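Retro notes (design track)

What went well: tokenization of the new backbones is finally stable.
What didn't: we kept losing track of which sequence belonged to which structure.
Fix going forward: every design gets posted as structure first, then sequence, in one message. First example under the new rule, 673 residues:
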């Protein structure tokens, strides 16, 4: 992975082979070769990656805004570069950069996992001790100079709905304000209990969705607020309302309640980081490179900073950086008509012609090199791993309970799976089941939608409600509260008409967004071709027409018919110490009742026939999908098919040893997932 400030080479190995990763890194650092044919095919692949990236319009807008905000500074340049510069890149420039900067004093090694620290140090010394430092090519990056200037950009693209964002330049990672910025994102725009969600979504109903996040860089970062306006609402009004909320913080400070809510959510997310070794290793390296403080990330994870100091620092960031004169804006807007579409097509045709000309003298003629080093690795027996066994019982209401006590951290994950899903939707009301499930979080007899969001988020509880499934992540100390709230939404949802109208608006916006992203909807498009009239072909979201036709009576009928503990299961994994789990479940969701759910009587699947289907869109890249009927998990051929997937495509780990990757390496003409 490459960013504005650093490049990461990442290896995931089974414990018995972790030293192979150090061996490979040492080889990369000292023995890289630069052959013209290899350079040609990889350059073509990078250009394809750039073109694919440009089809992600939100990411493109983010990149363009960063470029505008840091004009005259190295952060101005996009990470992947410009296409015209890539096509003119020379292999000697790559080799010179490698020899100048791939030196030990420019690098750190991070090892995370089931390893002994002394063995790690000894192994790294074994492979890297003879490397010679080189300080002659050190580059000092100056901090960007701030100015009282606003910059804006609008991208006109073939999309159905407009989106916008504002950005403020804020302290970078080197300033050691990561904790404060993470908290600020939750205070200002993350979650339904944030200031901007409550104001712009709940109160003013002028945006369909809103979010905030930090685009991290070492010297200066960017605090982004992204939003999707309700049709007919002016961008300028939304931007004014956002600035007003920052101004309110500047004048009145933060409340104790919102700071506690943010701290609880960030603490929970930090604990999740410790469960993902790959991401944790990346964060350790990034934090150390930026701060030269190997303990700073751990202090952030543990939130080992006085709350009063955090509050003071956040308010200072808002006063210094989140003010109107420093605000930059960006928009992705629909094209205005056929003339714009024709111009866009002409631009794409011209770009494609240039690519064809440039690629003509960059054809790789040599075959792939024979495997050498990998054949010398002697596979060791895997370390025995005992998969955790869950315990199982059933509540008095028929709900199956599966649980496992896991004490590595203080978190608990809860998943409720119902026996039904969106396959039960009728063709004229596609999306009804998903619509109904969304409404479970929109208010109960005890809490309004706003109050419910506050109850969850202030307790540090994350909840995701989707078709046929409810997922929650929380601290062990909040388990009883989480189960009580879960019972409330399952039993006492009221399906308020005004909330139904608003959720309908959000779903329709999601449908437009979904069908604007070829890499997203190609799977649904393939399902429709393979499954034809079978229930498996149904789209969970539905269509604009069917969602508009769904009434409150439809939603309530679906709730009474399908939201039932009969045949459902709740899985609970995490730190369950100190909880009488079964008694607690009986006390809370034991009151949930419902009818028996008949098993879906699906029709037999028809054999898939060879067919080529096209879906035309104005995009720079073509997304190809190959689909057909698979086999059931219980089929004796399933394991063989899974192994074939790894051999052919690389499987879930995207193996670089797969046949498709070799084809991509040979041609440089495509990327795949």
């Amino acid at each position: 992975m490459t960013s504005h400030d650093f490049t990461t080479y990442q290896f995931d190995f089974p414990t018995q082979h972790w030293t192979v990763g150090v061996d490979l890194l040492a080889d990369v650092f000292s023995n890289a070769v630069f052959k013209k044919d290899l350079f040609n095919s990889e350059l073509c692949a990078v250009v394809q990656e750039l073109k694919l990236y440009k089809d992600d319009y939100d990411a493109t807008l983010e990149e363009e805004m960063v470029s505008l905000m840091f004009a005259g500074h190295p952060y101005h340049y996009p990470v992947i570069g410009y296409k015209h510069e890539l096509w003119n890149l020379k292999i000697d420039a790559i080799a010179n950069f490698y020899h100048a900067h791939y030196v030990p004093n420019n690098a750190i090694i991070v090892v995370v996992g089931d390893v002994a620290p002394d063995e790690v140090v000894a192994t790294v010394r074994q492979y890297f001790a003879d490397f010679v430092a080189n300080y002659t090519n050190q580059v000092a990056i100056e901090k960007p100079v701030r100015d009282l200037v606003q910059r804006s950009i609008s991208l006109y693209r073939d999309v159905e709905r407009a989106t916008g964002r504002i950005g403020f330049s804020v302290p970078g990672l080197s300033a050691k304000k990561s904790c404060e910025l993470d908290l600020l994102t939750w205070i200002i725009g993350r979650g339904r209990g944030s200031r901007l969600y409550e104001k712009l979504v709940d109160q003013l109903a002028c945006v369909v969705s809103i979010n905030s996040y930090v685009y991290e860089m070492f010297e200066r970062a960017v605090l982004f607020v992204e939003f999707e306006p309700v049709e007919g609402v002016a961008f300028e009004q939304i931007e004014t309302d956002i600035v007003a909320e920052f101004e309110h913080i500047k004048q009145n400070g933060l409340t104790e309640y919102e700071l506690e809510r943010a701290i609880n959510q960030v603490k929970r997310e930090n604990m999740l980081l410790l469960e993902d070794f790959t991401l944790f290793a990346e964060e350790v390296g990034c934090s150390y490179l930026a701060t030269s403080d190997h303990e700073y990330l751990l202090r952030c994870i543990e939130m080992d900073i006085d709350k009063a100091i955090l509050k003071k620092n956040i308010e200072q960031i808002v006063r210094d950086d989140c003010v109107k004169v420093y605000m930059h804006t960006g928009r992705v807007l629909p094209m205005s008509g056929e003339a714009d579409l024709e111009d866009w097509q002409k631009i794409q045709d011209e770009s494609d012609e240039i690519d064809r000309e440039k690629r003509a003298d960059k054809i790789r003629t040599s075959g792939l090199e024979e495997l050498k080093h990998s054949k010398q690795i002697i596979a060791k027996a895997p370390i025995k791993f005992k998969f955790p066994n869950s315990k199982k019982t059933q509540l008095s209401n028929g709900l199956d309970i599966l649980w496992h006590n896991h004490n590595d951290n203080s978190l608990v994950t809860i998943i409720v799976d119902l026996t039904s899903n969106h396959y039960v939707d009728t063709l004229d009301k596609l999306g009804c089941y998903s619509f109904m499930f969304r409404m479970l979080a929109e208010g109960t007899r005890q809490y309004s939608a706003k109050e419910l969001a506050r109850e969850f988020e202030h307790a540090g509880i994350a909840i995701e409600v989707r078709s046929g499934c409810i997922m929650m992540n929380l601290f062990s100390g909040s388990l009883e509260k989480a189960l009580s709230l879960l019972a409330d939404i399952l039993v006492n949802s009221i399906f308020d008409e005004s909330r139904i109208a608003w959720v309908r608006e959000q779903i329709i916006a999601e449908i437009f967004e979904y069908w604007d992203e070829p890499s997203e909807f190609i799977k649904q498009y393939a399902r429709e071709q393979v499954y034809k009239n079978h229930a498996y072909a149904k789209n969970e979201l539905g269509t604009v027409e069917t969602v508009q036709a769904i009434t409150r009576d439809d939603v309530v009928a679906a709730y009474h018919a399908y939201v039932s503990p009969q045949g459902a299961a709740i899985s609970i994994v995490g730190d369950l110490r100190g909880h009488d789990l079964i008694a607690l479940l009986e006390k809370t969701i034991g009151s949930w009742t419902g009818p028996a759910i008949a098993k879906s009587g699906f029709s037999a699947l028809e054999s898939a026939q060879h067919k080529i289907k096209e879906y035309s869109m104005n995009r720079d890249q073509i997304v190809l999908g190959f689909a057909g009927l698979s086999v059931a998990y219980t089929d004796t051929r399933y394991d063989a098919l899974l192994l074939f997937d790894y051999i052919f495509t690389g499987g879930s780990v995207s193996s670089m040893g797969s046949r498709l990757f070799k084809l991509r390496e040979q041609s440089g003409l495509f990327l795949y997932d």
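Added context from the reviewer: The chain has 25 helices and eleven strands.
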